[in-house]
Amino acid sequence: MINALGPQEWTAIWLSLQVALVATVAALPVAIWIAYVLARKSFTGRQLLNGVVHLPLVLPPVVTGYLLLVVFGQEGPLGGFLKDVFGISFAFRWTGAALAAAIMAFPLMVRAIRLGFEAVDPGLEDAAATLGASRWRIWRTVTLPLVVPGILAGAILGFAKALGEFGATITFVAAIPGQTQTIPTAIYGLLQVPGSEPAVLGLVTVSVILAMGALLVSEWLARRMAKRLGGK
Amino acid sequence: MISVDIKKRLGDFLLDVQFDAPMGVTAIFGRSGSGKTSVVNAVAGLLQPDAGRIAVGQSLLLDSAKRTHLPPQQRRIGYVFQDARLFPHLTVMRNLSYGGNHDAARVIDVLGLGQLLDRMPAGLSGGERQRVALGRALMCDPQLLLMDEPLAALDAPRKAEILPFLERLRDDVKIPILYVSHDVSEVARLATTLVVLEGGRVTASGPVGQVLSQPETVPLVGVRAAGAVIETTVAGRLLDDGLTELAFSGGRLVLPGILGVLGQAVRIRIPAQDVILAKHAPSDLSALNILPVTITRIEQGRGPGVAVGLQTGDDHLLARVTRRSAQRMELAVGQKIYAIIKATAVGPEDISS
């Protein structure tokens, strides 16, 4: 099955991995910060922030993709600014695919990491404060290590989501081979061409392997963490 | 010397607490919901009072008039929580040294932690956890130690395992301790000063022996908990009978068990309900301890009981009798009568050395 993959399919696979990895790594710090704010802080507008974060989860992906096009396109307010000031362009480039994947994966990452924060006993942070630890040291030595399982779960979930993102990606950056064509858009494109079932099957196989791999790695990491905290 | 004067509104509950605590162990005693933990949290800086002043010795931790409110990090206060709160991802050694390494070797030795250093907290027993938490608090070189019911989550054998450590701490480490408890035998054993909280207010405070032997204290601490605490010294050991003779200002008491070496100080608690009163010196009685006493106070309780304050020498005892017998015996303040204390009445949990 894997033999049926041509150079174009392999390009799509590597591009998918690159897009998903960049999307996850770039979104993770922001997701951790937003999850922390949502789990621990009370402020006016908290529900609004929560709603905005979850919007990509409930909006039709095509709508999200269109909004990205409007905002981050060449003529868009942010897109134009970023291109003029930093020389970063999103439209019809792999960076755009990464942006779309990151936006779509973001709510899932925040949800998982927020659960992680909510599972950390604030009493432990109080205890660290009475022992003289600064807020930064408490965050670094108590909160963050205890929330690592949640962060890992969020990252893996986000990576899997980013790998499979379709609607927003194809709307925002289309499916240009070698530029923006990821595994899902490649499969969709191949399905339009008669006689390409072997290549489709190859890509599907790779998808399943990647997804299973991500799940197994996350399970293994979670078990390792549980074992460490379980003290055995 | 610790001085606390704080006000804090927590929903419908108003905390309004003032007390001064000298060196030694000050017990904050009260039912659950009386505001004990809020008081120690305010001292630790984890709860910000609406108004007030908290000072430990020369250092001012909180003064709402001067807008001083030190964060917990700068208070140098060791806090032993009821649930230990060890960091689950760190070994015992790294938990211990989290706040500092003050006197590490001695703390580890005194608390018997040497065997545990490489273990993770999840693998420790409840008693071991509290010992580690205590060691961790001590190693940050605190100017004050707060202990919020450190034994409440432990069963009797584990308690018995920790209490000697706490006593050694009280006698060896010269830092004041605020000790929250709702267990009167713990308080009687450890504390020098007692602050009784009820509904967010201080209803009694002073030296432990004095507060616990006041008849007014009975409704505050409960009928079973009320009773005098007396400092005695071992005056004789009746090895054949397995008894110890203890001397105090009011005379001598004989208690079962060998409680120490000659001359050793022993603190005992005599529950009010285990003291019997008689108008004349009884004879042919199986009880070994008969003390001549003077009635100092008679306090009517809400129920059928009457609390009778007694003086013998410089010490105070407390007896609880029914109102009916108080009337029949025509008890009155100033009267000289006899208190009969069954020697077995003072249980081993009430004796400290």
Give me some keywords for this one.
heterodimer; A: 232 residues; mainly alpha; MetI-like fold; 10 helices; 79% helix; B: 353 residues; alpha+beta; Rossmann fold; OB fold (Dihydrolipoamide Acetyltransferase, E2P); 2 domains; six-stranded mixed sheet; five-stranded antiparallel sheet; 9 helices; 21% helix; 37% strand
CATH superfamily of chain A: MetI-like
Low-confidence stretches of chain A: none
The number of helical elements of chain A comes to: 10
Mean pLDDT over all positions of chain A: 90
The N- and C-terminal alpha carbons of chain B lie at a distance of 24 Å
Succession of helices and strands of chain B: EEEHEEEEHHHEHEHEEHHEEEEEEEEHE
CATH structural fold name of the largest domain in chain B: Rossmann fold
Number of strands of chain B: 20
Q: Give the DSSP E fraction of chain A (strand runs of 2 or more residues).
A: under 5%
**Overall 3D shape of chain A:** globular
**How many structurally independent domains of chain B?**
2
- Helix count, DSSP H or I runs of 4 or more residues of chain B: 9
Descriptive notes:
The complex is a heterodimer of chains A (232) and B (353). Chain A has helices spanning 7-40, 46-58, 61-72, 77-86, 94-118, 122-130, 135-164, 167-173, 183-191, 197-230. With 232 residues, chain A is mainly α. Chain A has one domain (7-184): MetI-like fold (Orthogonal Bundle). The radius of gyration of chain A is 20 Å and the shape is globular. Chain A starts with 6 loop residues before the first helix and ends with a helix. The mean pLDDT of chain A is 90. With 353 residues, chain B is α+β, with helices and mostly antiparallel strands. Chain B has two domains: 2-207, Rossmann fold; 227-350, RNA polymerase II/Efflux pump adaptor protein, barrel-sandwich hybrid domain (OB fold (Dihydrolipoamide Acetyltransferase, E2P), Beta Barrel), CATH 2.40.50.100. The radius of gyration of chain B is 22 Å and the shape is globular. The mean pLDDT of chain B is 88. Chain A binds chain B through residues 121, 123-124, 126-134, 141-142, 145-146, 228-232, and chain B through 44-46, 71-79, 81, 83, 85, 87-89, 98-100, 119-124, 136-137, 140.
